[in-house]
Amino acid sequence: MKVSLYDVARSATSSVNFAKDISITELDLLSTVGVVEVNKAYASGVIESINSQFFLTMDVKLDLTLSCDRCLSSFTESKSLSVESIITEDDSSIDGIFAEDGKVDISKVVVDEIMMSMSMKSLCFEDCKGICSSCGINLNEKECKCKEDEIDPRLSGLLDLLK
Ligand SMILES: [Zn+2]
Ligand SMILES: [Zn+2]
Questions:
Q1: Å from CA of 143 to ligand 2 middle
Q2: How far apart are the C-alpha atoms of 64 and 77, rounded to whole Å?
């Protein structure tokens, strides 16, 4: 979804309201921060012109499927984000949201906000035990015996043959 600054400037109230489900296609980018799927993204807000400066105020409600950094299982998380920013038409400016060709790409703003809001580690729950580095078992579901009887790696090959 794109909102044109021209429409904002031309409007009688010097503002354009929006409230819409946003489809997110940048999943390859979002996967770098552990997002597997954006199940729902709903953005509502307003773009206003005040003293010939444009502003965006927006709330985003998200339903995300994330992958746990420790056990790699998928889990869902709901998030709310609030965005308040000036809008700039100068692509060299480091402040504010860049409006390309005078249009604000709301989906892109949402993607940027998700990128910034993701914590360094996504965990399915705080005390996730992760995956055993020897047998690959999900330690939240089962316990393994790897720690108890550490098998000599030279012997484990032999044991495999006996199975
Ligand atoms: Zn986990
Ligand atoms: Zn194990």
A1: 7
A2: 5
DSSP 112: H
- SS3 of 114, please? helix
- Which residues fall within 8 angstroms of residue 110, CB to CB, at 6 or more apart? 22, 24, 41, 43, 60, 62, 81
Q: What is the pLDDT of residues 93-117, one digit of tens each?
A: 888 999 999 999 999 999 999 999 9
Cα dihedral 119→124→129→130 (10° resolution): -80
* Cα–ligand 1 centroid distance for 49 (angstroms): 45
Query: Taking Cα atoms as reference points, which of 47, 28, 25, 38 lies closest to residue 96?
Result: 47
Nearest-angstrom CA–CA distance, 103 and 114 = 20
Looking up tokens 């010097």 gives 14
Strand partners of residue 87: 54, 97
**Separation of 144 CA from ligand 1 center, angstroms?**
16
Give the global pTM: 0.81
